[in-house]
Design a protein that fits this description.
The complex is a heterotrimer of chains A (256), B (216) and C (474).
Chain A lengths: L7 E4 L3 H6 L1 H13 L3 E3 L9 H5 L3 H15 L4 E4 L2 H14 L7 H9 L1 E3 H8 L8 E8 L3 H7 L3 H7 L3 E5 L15 H4 L1 H18 L3 E4 L2 H13 L5 E4 H5 L14
Parallel strand pairs in A: 1-2, 1-3, 3-4, 5-6, 5-7, 7-8
Helix pairs in contact in A: 5-6, 5-8, 7-9, 11-12
Chain B lengths: L2 H13 L5 H10 L16 H9 L7 E5 L5 H11 L5 E4 L14 E2 L9 E5 L2 E3 L4 E5 L14 E7 L3 E2 L2 H7 L10 E5 L4 E2 L7 E2 L6 E7 L2
Chain C lengths: L7 H9 L2 H24 L3 H17 L1 H14 L3 E5 L2 H14 L4 E4 L3 H6 L1 H7 L3 E4 L2 H9 L15 H11 L9 H18 L2 E4 L3 E3 L4 E6 L3 H6 L4 E7 L3 E2 L2 H16 L6 E5 L13 E7 L3 H4 L15 H4 L2 H6 L10 H11 L17 H5 L6 H14 L5 H14 L2 H19 L4 E2 L6 H4 L4 E2 L6 H15 L1
Parallel strand pairs in C: 1-10, 2-3, 2-4, 4-7, 5-8, 7-10
Antiparallel strand pairs in C: 5-6, 6-9, 11-12
Helix pairs in contact in C: 2-12, 3-12, 5-7, 9-10, 16-18
Classes of the chains: A alpha/beta (256), B alpha/beta (216), C alpha/beta (474).
Chain lengths: 256, 216, 474
């Protein structure tokens, strides 16, 4: 395959990955390249606008969305290591522009080519990891936006199936919210805590030594709680394991 | 302005467009066309098989007896009462066909209100989909006979089994025929899950349901 | 009940320290989820049924005036007296007057959330009528003097131990034991004669059938028939959105309602009321009244809140809501709790009176997923936040924080500069430890969980540095 035949993919790293866990961004980059993509990281990227959208500030959301459409509009695909941010662009941008019909065409084009990384690797690139190893017993939490808005469920499991040494054990209520909810967890910290406390109890009950998911927000929430509870369970974004980059103490620093 | 006029006026100003009644009726009919697309499929099982399976399922908890003729019903009732160790004091619904049967070996009572009684009532239809029995209020006896006793014994003709609730509505005579005050689909016994979602039977009415299906 | 949604945060604080509540909710919501899933999985035609249910409700709402008039004409022909009430006050006045005219001393009642919404209890006390709640859960909360905490299981907040203490204290004859079946038996004993002696029976309706004029109730206890048959007067109070065109349409909903609500294919008693006692009938009421209630529903029609009028009150959204499971129904301070309540309460009262409700949601979407009529609850809650934003309701602090962040997000260069500095700042604050347990401006986070120390440099900083290094090597 020549360079020109490769799909031109823009990586949208997301605010949280950019600030808190760049390793996820680099793992995504590696996987996309391994899968045969020509990857670019547009420098003008910031945020998808979800915090503004979920706070009801529609004018700001639109301004940010327009900027994102301009930044990413020319690529074949936009790939995001987060179901939540990918869903914002893919499913919610439509609502953002409901009062500006002249933007709908550009918005729809961008929404249609925006993918959450695990479903992109699996469904579009038909990628299956080889030669990658992770020693551990992991359990999987299905983050809500990826699961319900984008149908991400089987893909991560299929991809992880290709990782040598990795055993999986099911998580009870794997599809129940972890209590993160973006700004929810700081606006209603005590409710969020009650929810994540139930979640970490379920995680601990699996006996797994590793927690995997596809969204850093949820992972930081669960890993932060596991760490506060003194549980020695490491948390990684799925791409970190798939890329062979799940090293160190994991998200939240547990196990360091 | 009356409340009626205000409410209808508010609806009309929210919805604006008026439609001809025939168009609305056509649209409404289209929404329930081909009911088999939404009816739980039990192809391969007869109405009787399905009815019995559902009525005796863990969720409905009825017991079922099958007899050949209406004349055998009192004996079936007596056998049931012996099995559950109940005295033979029972209420039997009036009118055809139960009143005509031979109940001489029973201590018949009209005192339905007292708790702990057994009542025998006649179901107009049975719905195979859910194992439900259908009763109508009328002159033949208090409809409360189906709601007050502890033991509810139901007589049902196999010929009156139908597949689905959609099959029942046409049997009632259609929209322009005067209907009984009350029509009820009873599926099992009075139950509650109001305390800690634990299923308990015999909340206010029947705790036990026994259905005698008459073949002829 | 008096709405106290404006004190949501206080209610939450109390709920989260209530150990009994946690036990009660844990014992119930899990069971209800399992049962629902089982029975939906068995129903292969569920997807199509759900689609049709949504379409039928949309159709009915589009022609609501037509169907209301059809219902009124048919119900009247059946012998019912149909009343219309735009407000709860008017509905209460109608109910009181009927009771007074009937010389009623006691009234039995079947649980109806519409009845709670319009304040039936108040109407009865105005008329000097003793109110007897007959649904077991309503009986419990009447004895406890609690408001309902769930729309299907109003006593979900009570453990069986608490119910036992209550019945020991309040029942004429104490329960035989504290086991759940004996508690149920005790209520049976307590209520039987009251059913038979009541002067008026009051119910709601799960559906109104336009084509026949019937009102429909579904119960498991059979208390509806026991409430509506012995008294000389039967009153139905019902919201105008409960209409469906015909019997076949009702069939669609009967399959969905109990599956979604309690995980059963059908409830034990599905009853169609067609009027008062017929000539020659062995039992039944002499008079039958239907009160059609608006209470802000016509305002929702044609607005972005219209999908909420599809709701069939199954409670599945709250049974699957993590926030509801954590705080219980009372925290919402309104008749309707959980996700559907968080949409409905602002619509029935005001945005200001229920400021927290649309926000206290993680937007996880499970409520919409389990909704049998596919109401886009998360989108509607989000839209309510937008209405709040436009009405300038969010606090100054949260507006300022979002404003600062938005300012940066719209300026990529500045954004990356500030994020880089921020990451550096957090690393410094961590003092070399891998986890942060205390941090200014992050109290909401670190109060309950650790914050990981970020890597050295943001992704963009690291990425640009590596690009730079590659270029230099070349």
């Amino acid at each position: 395959m020549t360079q020109s035949e490769k799909p031109r993919v823009a990586l949208f790293v997301t605010c949280l990955v950019n600030a808190m866990r760049p390793n996820i961004g680099f793992a995504t980059l590696k996987l996309l390249e391994d899968a045969g993509c020509d990857v670019d990281v547009p420098e003008a990227q910031t945020c998808c606008g979800q915090p503004a959208f979920n706070s009801g500030d529609d004018a700001t959301t639109r301004a940010i969305a327009k900027q994102l459409i301009k930044t990413f509009g020319d690529y074949d695909y936009v790939v995001v290591p987060s179901g939540s941010c990918a869903s914002m662009i893919r499913t919610h941008y439509r609502d953002v522009f409901k009062d500006e019909p002249h933007w709908i065409e550009q918005q729809s084009a961008l929404s249609a080519k925006t993918w959450e990384v695990l479903s992109f690797l699996s469904d579009v690139m038909k990628y299956q990891p080889s030669d990658v190893h992770y020693d551990g017993l992991a359990t999987y939490h299905d983050s809500c936006s990826g699961l319900r808005d984008l149908g991400v469920h089987d893909q991560p499991r299929a991809l992880l199936n290709g990782v040598g040494g990795l055993k999986m054990t099911p998580l009870q209520d794997n599809d129940a919210c972890c209590g993160f909810g973006g700004t929810f967890c700081v606006k209603y910290p005590d409710i969020s805590n009650a929810i994540v406390t139930d979640k970490t109890a379920r995680i601990a009950a699996t006996g797994a030594d590793t927690l995997l998911a596809g969204d850093l927000g949820c992972l930081m929430n669960m890993a932060g709680k596991l760490s506060r509870e003194g549980r020695e369970i490491k948390a990684y974004h799925t791409v970190e394991v798939l890329a062979g980059m799940a090293k160190g103490g994991g998200i939240g620093g547990a196990g360091e | 302005m009356s409340d009626r006029a205000s409410i209808l006026g508010a609806i009309r100003s929210a919805k604006r467009t008026a439609h001809a009644s025939e168009d609305i009726a056509r649209e409404a009919a289209a929404l329930v066309a081909e009911p088999q697309a939404i009816q739980p499929n039990f192809e391969g099982a007869t109405l009787l098989d399905r009815f019995v399976a559902k009525a005796t399922s863990e969720r409905v908890t009825a017991t079922v007896d099958q007899v050949a003729t209406m004349g055998e019903v009192p004996a079936a009732v007596s056998g049931y009462l012996q099995r559950v160790e109940q005295e033979s004091s029972i209420c039997v619904q009036g009118g055809a066909p139960l009143e005509e049967l031979d109940w001489t070996s029973f201590d018949l009572t009209a005192r339905l209100e007292e708790d702990g009684r057994c009542a025998v009532t006649y179901a107009e239809y049975g719905i195979a989909e859910t194992g439900s029995v259908v009763f109508k209020s009328g002159a033949h006896g208090p409809i409360l006979m189906n709601f007050l006793p502890l033991y509810h014994i139901v007589v049902l003709r196999a010929a009156n089994l139908i597949g689905y609730s959609e099959d029942l509505w046409p049997l009632l005579g259609g929209a322009n025929v005067p209907q009984s005050r009350l029509l009820t689909l009873v599926t099992g016994t009075s139950g509650t899950a109001d305390i800690e979602a634990r299923n308990v039977r015999g909340a206010h009415g029947p705790k036990h349901m026994h259905i005698v299906i008459v073949a002829d | 009940m008096i709405q106290t949604s404006d004190r949501f945060r206080d209610h939450v604080a109390r709920a989260l320290t209530d150990d009994n509540l946690k036990v009660a909710l844990t014992r119930t919501t899990g069971l209800l989820q399992t049962r629902r899933k089982q029975v939906i999985d068995e129903y292969a035609e569920y997807g199509e049924a759900r689609k049709r249910a949504q379409a039928i409700k949309e159709h009915t709402l589009n022609h609501l005036d037509h169907y209301l008039e059809m219902f009124e004409a048919n119900a009247t022909a059946n012998g019912a007296v149909v009343h219309w009430a735009q407000t709860p006050q008017e509905a209460r006045r109608i109910v009181s007057e009927i009771c007074v005219a009937a010389g009623a001393k006691t009234a039995t009642r079947v649980k109806s959330m519409l009845g709670e919404e319009i304040g039936i209890a108040e109407a009865l006390s105005d008329a000097g009528v003793e109110r007897i709640e007959t649904d077991l859960a309503e009986h419990i909360i009447q004895l406890a003097d609690d408001p309902p905490s769930h729309i299907v299981m109003p006593a979900m907040h009570k453990t069986h131990e608490q119910v036992a203490d209550l019945f020991d204290d309040k029942h004429g004859v104490a329960p035989d034991s504290h086991d759940i079946p004996d508690l149920v038996g005790s209520a049976r004993r307590e209520l039987r004669q009251k059913f038979l002696n009541a002067d008026v029976g009051i119910s709601g309706a799960n559906f109104l059938i336009a084509e026949t004029g019937a009102t429909v109730t579904v119960t498991n206890e059979g208390n509806s028939e026991l409430t509506c048959t012995p008294p000389k007067v039967h009153i139905v109070t019902v919201g105008i959105e409960k209409l469906v065109p015909g019997m076949d349409h009702a069939s669609v909903f009967l399959r969905l309602l109990s599956r979604a609500a309690i995980g059963a294919e059908i409830t034990q008693y599905t009853t169609f009321y067609n009027g008062p006692k017929r000539q020659g009938d062995a039992d039944g009421p002499e008079a039958y009244h239907i009160v059609l209630v608006d209470n802000h529903r016509t305002e929702m029609l044609g607005s972005d809140l219209e999908p909420m009028l599809r709701c069939i009150r199954c409670g599945a959204c709250m049974n699957h809501c993590p926030v509801y499971a954590a705080v219980g129904g009372h925290a919402y301070g309104a008749v309707y709790p959980g996700p559907m309540g968080s949409v409905l309460t602002p619509a029935l009262s005001s945005l200001e009176a229920a400021k927290d409700l649309p926000n206290a949601c993680t937007l996880n979407g499970r409520c919409k997923e389990v909704c049998p009529v596919n109401i886009p609850l998360p989108d509607m809650l989000r839209n309510l936040r937008a209405r709040q934003w436009d009405a300038n309701l969010p606090t100054r602090v949260s507006k300022a924080a979002l404003g600062a962040w938005s300012f940066l997000a719209k300026r990529p260069r500045l954004y990356h500069l500030v994020t880089g500095l921020g990451v550096h700042g957090i690393r410094l604050w961590a003092f070399g430890r891998s986890r942060i347990k205390r941090m200014p401006f992050a109290g909401g986070w670190v109060k309950h969980r650790d914050l990981p120390r970020p890597e050295k440099g943001s992704f963009m900083q690291q990425y640009n540095a590596s690009l730079h290094a590659t270029r230099n090597r070349k």
